[in-house]
């Protein structure tokens, strides 16, 4: 099931009503939320429940085993290997068979299922595999105690708001809050929860989906005669906005649902396209994945503890594997490799005296330098997005080439010249800026408490959120909404 399917509009009120009735009876609410999460995951594909329940059993048992065994490293290795092997089988089998067929000419090596395109990657498998690995690693490090209650651990793994595309939660951020003494029995910051839900649906249904309708024909025919001479750069900009709005919209909805059931989770985005370097970009983009890669891959590889060249190697390995995690195509690995190269160049540049002098600029020169850094970082990220969006290497290069070579009469051809789309995006950016100036969301309840008259302020915020939600439904393209981009990962 997806948040944008019609079935979810019936699913959520039923689940929330059941939770409201059972929330003071701990065993019942635990079972209710677990049952609802399994229904959400298995909706239309009930066979996938065997997979996710298998993950829960193995990871839970591994955590208990780590508490009592003396061969802790071996047990941890076995648990991590299980997670990665199952993930690799479902996600990378078509890629490996395609690669073998192309290199060796073994067309017969491809199974009929893979060749026909009917190979299905289970929804969210990348996210709950990483969640299980993080849990086992934290138990191994002694950061958390192994969970003795299987049902509690299963809910930690499968809770439907974060199941399909994160955020990737550590045990201290969610599992610890499922214990009897800490299990929430009321929504957390209800006004914030409703606003996050409204903003998330607006980002997805109105902004991201309308951008998709505008740019998908161009990317589908990027090498065709129909797009000859078209300037590709506006389409690349639009895709950068689409993937941000789509994924951050999902995160808003997930966090809003978490608050609805009493859980506060970390945000995944912090204005990433205002980053002043690629390193800064990864502090702002997909934050929970960035910290996972840092804590469970980059640091175990040695981090920056073994000199400059080893640090650069560790950065590149981390980003290559992070890119491959995103999708079963070598272009994703290339995308990660580009970010690895950007991070290495950024690290080398940061060590120069010129960079230190430029960083110390103030006033107008300092502002201009900051703007130049933001522009350069954004365009580096956009160049890499070409390899993310177009999984065929030649198509990606063609797209980049069309950013520099185009016909003057096709400068803003097709959807890139749609003024209404750019106006909509501009108005949303202005609204987002205004709301940020009013204060960050976690402070809203405090602002309401001090506002006079408080009922009027509270009514305004509720009215704004409901209006935004209604606009999301009214202004969406209509029909079945396309799935979230990160559902494919």
Provide the structure class: mainly alpha
End-to-end span in angstroms? 15 Å
| SS element count, helices | 20
What overall geometry do the principal axes of the alpha carbons give? globular
Oligomeric state of shown chains = single chain
Strand content: under 5%
Q: How many beta-strand elements?
A: 0
Count of domain modules: 2
Poorly predicted segments:
440-445, 447-453
Major β-sheet profile:
none
Rg on CA atoms, Å: 24 Å
Percent helix, as a range, is 55-70%
Topology as H/E string? HHHHHHHHHHHHHHHHHHHH
In round numbers, the mean pLDDT is 88
Q: Could you explain the architecture of this structure?
A:
- The protein has 489 residues and is mainly α.
- It folds into two domains: 6-185, no CATH class; 191-475, no CATH class.
- It is built from 20 helices and no strands.
- Helix 3 (48-68) packs antiparallel against helix 4 (72-104), helix 9 runs antiparallel to helix 10 (233-260) and helix 14 (330-350) runs antiparallel to helix 16 (363-389).
- The longest helix has 33 residues, at 72-104.
- 37% of the residues are buried.
Task: Write a brief caption for the model.
The chain contains 20 helices and no strands. It has 489 residues and is mainly alpha-helical.
């Amino acid at each position: 099931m997806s948040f944008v399917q019609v079935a979810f509009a019936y699913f959520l009120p039923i689940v929330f009503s059941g939770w409201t009735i059972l929330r003071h009876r701990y065993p019942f609410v635990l079972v209710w939320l677990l049952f609802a999460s399994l229904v959400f995951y298995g909706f239309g594909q009930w066979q996938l429940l065997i997979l996710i329940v298998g993950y829960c059993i193995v990871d839970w048992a591994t955590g208990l085993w780590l508490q009592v065994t003396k061969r802790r490293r071996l047990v941890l290795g076995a648990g991590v290997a299980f997670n990665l092997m199952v993930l690799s089988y479902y996600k990378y089998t078509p890629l490996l068979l395609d690669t073998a067929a192309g290199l060796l000419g073994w067309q017969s090596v491809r199974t009929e299922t893979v060749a026909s395109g009917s190979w299905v990657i289970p929804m969210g498998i990348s996210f709950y595999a990483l969640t299980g690995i993080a849990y086992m690693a934290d138990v191994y490090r002694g950061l958390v105690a192994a969970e003795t209650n299987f049902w509690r651990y299963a809910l930690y793994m499968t809770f439907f708001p974060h199941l399909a595309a994160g955020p990737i939660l550590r045990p201290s951020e969610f599992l610890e809050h499922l214990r009897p003494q800490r299990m929430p029995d009321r929504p957390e910051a209800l006004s914030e929860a409703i606003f996050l839900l409204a903003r998330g649906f607006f980002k997805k249904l109105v902004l991201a989906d309308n951008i998709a309708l505008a740019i998908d024909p161009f990317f589908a025919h990027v090498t065709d005669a129909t797009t000859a001479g078209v300037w590709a750069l506006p389409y690349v900009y639009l895709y950068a906005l689409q993937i941000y709005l789509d994924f951050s919209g999902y995160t808003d909805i997930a966090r809003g649902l978490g608050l609805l059931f009493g859980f506060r989770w970390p945000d995944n985005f912090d204005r990433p396209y205002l980053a002043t370097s690629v390193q800064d970009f990864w502090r702002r983009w997909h934050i929970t994945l960035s910290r996972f890669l840092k804590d469970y891959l980059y640091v175990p590889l040695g981090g920056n503890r073994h000199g400059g060249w080893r640090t650069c190697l560790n950065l590149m390995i981390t980003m290559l594997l992070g890119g491959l995690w995103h999708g079963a195509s070598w272009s994703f690995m290339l995308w990660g490799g580009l970010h690895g190269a950007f991070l290495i160049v950024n690290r080398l540049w940061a060590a120069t005296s010129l960079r230190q002098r430029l960083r110390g600029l103030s006033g107008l020169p300092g502002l201009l330098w900051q703007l130049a850094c933001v522009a350069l970082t954004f365009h580096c990220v956009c160049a890499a997005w070409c390899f993310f969006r177009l999984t065929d290497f030649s198509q990606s290069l063609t797209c980049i080439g069309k950013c520099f070579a185009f016909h003057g009469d096709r400068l803003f051809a097709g959807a890139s010249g749609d003024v209404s789309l750019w106006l909509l995006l501009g108005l949303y950016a202005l609204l987002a800026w205004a709301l940020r100036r009013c204060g960050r969301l976690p402070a809203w309840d405090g602002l309401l408490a001090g506002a006079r008259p408080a009922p009027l302020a509270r009514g305004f915020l509720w009215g704004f959120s409901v209006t935004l939600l209604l606009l999301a439904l009214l202004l969406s393209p209509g029909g079945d909404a396309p799935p979230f981009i990160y559902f494919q990962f």
